[in-house]
Design brief:
The longest helix is centred in the middle third of the chain and has 17 residues. The radius of gyration is 20 Å and the shape is elongated. It folds into two domains: 74 residues, lambda repressor-like DNA-binding domains (434 Repressor (Amino-terminal Domain), Orthogonal Bundle), CATH 1.10.260.40; 183 residues, Endonuclease, Chain A, CATH 3.30.870. The chain is α/β, with parallel strands linked by helices and 275 residues long. Helix 2 packs across helix 3, helix 7 packs antiparallel against helix 8 and helix 10 runs antiparallel to helix 12. A six-stranded mixed beta sheet has the order 3-2-1-4-5-6, sandwiched between helices. The chain contains twelve helices and six strands.
Length: 275
């Protein structure tokens, strides 16, 4: 297990995992031994300790019983669940920063990895005004987004294939200046040697493969992980029986969407205010 995967101060889930690891080490237990005391596998313990899996209320209660910590982990678990990040997303981010390839589909707003700081700030400010998140949670989101974007500059960089629904361009965010800069960001992204950018036009109609955001990350060992989300929760899937059909659907979407040249031309028209 790589003990440097997460920093304890980076998020509640990282702090939870680090505390679990410290108390386990103090008792001289392996992950399998702690798992036996709690009724979980050593693999499950490892996933929680490294932030790849969120602790459920049952897991936290079991940890408190096994480690004799009162309700410490139950309270920490509540902090993890109260974070502004959707369930499953922290685990996804751990995989994203290791990905050799990233495939994205987004609708309604620009993908986080491609957002400018002003566009991202406008999105989070809107959520604060609606009462959906707090100012502190907004800062948490923006900090994590900046870290995710910075990770793309690693060597070698990941290959990124992004398909954006046309709705991303018709939704004004932050005003004309912010939108203009965001569109420039997309055009610059399309010019990179390790990226492909496509637009899924409204004309696809029922042929559009997805109705929700989709992330597919391929790791160095060629294993592909699926992350999808609704308004209320995210879901991480590793089983090939679920991942492969979604990867096939993504390839179909690529074939149906506009080519990159056609997509860039459409974005340039939006940039000029004449879609």
């Amino acid at each position: 297990m790589n003990r440097k995967e997460l920093e304890p101060g980076s998020s509640p889930i990282a702090a939870y995992g680090e505390r679990l690891r410290i108390l386990r080490d103090e008792r001289g237990w392996t992950q399998d031994e702690l798992g036996a005391h709690m009724g979980y596998s050593g693999t499950h313990i490892s996933a929680v300790e490294t932030g790849r899996r969120s602790p459920t209320p049952r897991f936290s209660r079991s940890a408190d019983r096994a480690l004799g910590t009162g309700d410490q982990f139950e309270r920490r678990g509540q902090s993890v669940r109260n974070t502004s990040l959707l369930e499953g997303f922290p685990e996804y981010v751990v995989l994203e920063v290791k990905a050799a390839e990233i495939r994205l589909f987004e609708l309604g707003i620009m993908p986080g990895l491609l957002q400018t700081p002003d566009y991202a700030a406008a999105i989070t400010s809107g959520a604060v005004r609606r009462g959906a998140i707090t100012e502190q949670q907004a800062d948490e989101r923006l900090t994590l987004l900046a870290e995710r974007q910075a990770s793309l500059e690693r060597t070698p960089p990941p290959f990124i294939h992004a398909v954006l629904d046309e709705s991303c361009f018709w939704r004004p965010v932050g005003g004309p200046r912010v939108m203009a800069a965001q569109l420039e960001r997309l055009l610059a992204f399309a010019e990179l040697p390790t990226t492909v950018l496509q637009v899924a036009p409204y004309a696809l109609g029922e042929r559009r493969a997805f109705d929700l955001p989709v992330h597919l990350v391929t790791l160095a060992d060629r294993k592909t992980i699926l992350y999808t989300e609704s308004a209320q929760r995210g879901h991480l899937e590793r089983e090939s029986t679920f991942v492969v059909p979604m990867l096939t659907a993504y390839h179909q979407l690529q074939a149906e969407a506009l080519s990159q040249a056609e997509s860039v031309a459409m974005i340039q028209k939006f940039r000029k205010g004449a879609p």
